[in-house]
């Protein structure tokens, strides 16, 4: 009797892995507009993000070698094309764990004002264009 149900465990593991690997992003508030200024965001990015994501946003910062998973490559059009402005904003504001990504990506809402988060998100968005 127990042998019949052995296929359930691998199937459940595959489904759980697929679910965890997807971004768990709540819907954007109605009318959400990123706004932000990429030029101002570049300066904030250099101080707050480049250590992990690299000065050019390729995910190759000085701290990247010790991180698993590796930081996001913001220059990848294929990857960044899948992300909405809301998703980029949210992961900067609330951290990776808030959207089902790496908990190593910290929340910046206590370190940056909302306009600065929007500026960084605008700059990050500009790197894949």
Short structural summary:
By secondary structure, the chain is an all-alpha fold.
Report on the structure:
With 129 residues, the chain is mostly helical. The chain has one domain: Cytochrome Bc1 Complex, Chain D, domain 2. The chain contains six helices and no strands. It has helices at residues 8-21, 38-48, 50-53, 77-80, 85-94, 114-126. It is globular and about 40 Å long. The chain starts with 7 loop residues before the first helix and ends with a helix. Mean pLDDT is 86; it is low at 5-21.
- Biggest sheet descriptor: none
The assigned structural class equals: mainly alpha
| Helix amount | 40-55%
Q: Examine the secondary-structure arrangement and name the CATH architecture.
A: Orthogonal Bundle
What is the CATH class name? Answer: Mainly Alpha
Overall outline: globular
Domain module tally? 1
User: Quick check: average pLDDT?
Assistant: 86
Question: What is the straight-line distance between the termini?
Answer: 57 Å
The CATH topology comes to Cytochrome Bc1 Complex, Chain D, domain 2
Topology summary:
Blueprint lengths: L7 H14 L16 H11 L1 H4 L23 H4 L4 H10 L19 H13 L3
Helix pairs in contact: 2-6, 5-6
Keywords:
Cytochrome Bc1 Complex, Chain D, domain 2, 0% strand, 129 residues, mainly alpha, single chain
């Amino acid at each position: 009797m127990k042998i019949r149900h052995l296929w359930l465990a691998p199937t459940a593991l595959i489904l759980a892995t697929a679910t965890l690997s997807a971004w768990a992003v709540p819907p954007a508030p109605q009318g959400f507009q990123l706004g932000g200024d990429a030029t101002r965001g570049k300066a904030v990015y250099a101080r707050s993000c480049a250590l992990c994501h690299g000065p050019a946003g390729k995910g190759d910062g000085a701290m990247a070698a010790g991180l698993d998973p590796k930081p996001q490559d913001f220059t990848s059009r294929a990857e960044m094309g899948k992300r909405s402005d809301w998703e980029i904003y949210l992961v900067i504001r609330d951290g990776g764990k808030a959207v089902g990504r790496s908990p190593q990506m910290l929340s910046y809402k206590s370190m940056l004002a909302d306009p600065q988060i929007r500026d960084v998100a605008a700059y990050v968005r500009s790197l894949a264009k």
